[in-house]
Write a structure and sequence with these properties.
By secondary structure, the chain is an alpha/beta fold. Helix content is 36%, strand content 12%. The strands form two sheets. The protein has an eight-stranded parallel β-sheet. A two-stranded antiparallel ribbon has the order 9-10. Strand 2, helix 2 and strand 3 form a beta-alpha-beta unit.
Amino acid sequence: MNLHAPEGMTPFYPQVANHIEDDPTPKDQAIYVPSVSPGFAVDVYAGQWKRPLPQGVSAEDLNFLKPDNGLFRISHAMSSAGQALNQTKPCIISQRDWTKTIIIGDSGGYQIASGRLRISGDRDRHKILNWLERTADISMTLDVPTGPCQKPGYAFKNTKDCLATTLDHLDFFQKYRTPGKIRFLNVLQGNTQKEADAWYDAVKIYDFEGWAFAGVLRHNFSCLCRRIIVMAAEGQLQNKTWIHVLGTNELETAVLLTALQRSINRHINPDLRISYDTSSPFRLLTWKTIYSHPNFSATRMSMATDTIPTGHELIGSPIRFPWPSPLGDRMTLGDIVIKPGSNGLYQDNQSYHMLVHHNLASLCYAVAMANRVYDSESIQHKHTLATTAGDAVEEIEKVIASGSMTALAKASRVFQSLRHGIAPTADDEERDF
């Protein structure tokens, strides 16, 4: 039986406040959260497959939010109002066990940025707010992304306009939210340091339960640690429960965010969690690619990709699927390569859903491995894989422990050596601020 919250009742279970018992992600690690497509969520819950699944796999096994499924389990996932707002069919998100899962809601900022979602008034805002409170445990507030400013067709010309509309959204959410129903994360935007400072100063007056980092600066650990220092000094972290970093899942970033969470837990707030998301396990299929295996070297950690096996020679083949994962280990090439229909494709919807499951499990395994590698090498403070990230792990602890901009300045060379080390600063173009 699914223990989802009855209509009109606030789901509150103390054991899932910031950690779930028997969670695959350890309590002291940052959590990777996949953004789940509505189509996958609906089809996997329905479990009405047109072809047999791989031998030994049941329909329920593909539901990775189901704690006792036979393949692979995660406990956190993201669902976006920008994609699922009007989806009414039961799915693995709506029918989940609330005591064993945490759903993070996205209010649709990405879809606003890409022009697929328009907010024309309070009716639209009410619809999004109600959907978030009905669906999620934690959610972004409604914001207007600054990244596409000055791009053709974007409705907002500059960061100042984005902020003004976001403040209207925050006023609305603060006024009409149901207290205790959901934890909201105040989203931070800005394309330069000056813009980011102005944005933070404007939105910090709203008393939400946590923070979300968005925009180009979210990848830059100099900027990220700088904001944490400022927040801690102003008492903006001590009573918060969650930080989410939007749109990132690189393996080095996973390790660095774990280091950041641990430092915050040691020196600022022992109960705060950090999470981060992407939809890459789903989006990869758009380019006809899948994850193959993690690549670890002295210079970087990454997930390798390969093209989806296809072609008439593979139809019905008993040869095993080449790349390892809980489902991949059970699949043959014939499970995903079928006789093409009128569309000429050798994959059907079932093929793609199985490949998504493989992608997600492969990525989660790589994230777990990356954290294990850094944990073991950190004991002796001697890093041999992605060494620049290893150096940054050490510096994050020093910076957060000191709470000092001086320590941050000393660490700047290490942070700049990271893949996203160079980012806009206060000296860059300031637009209309």
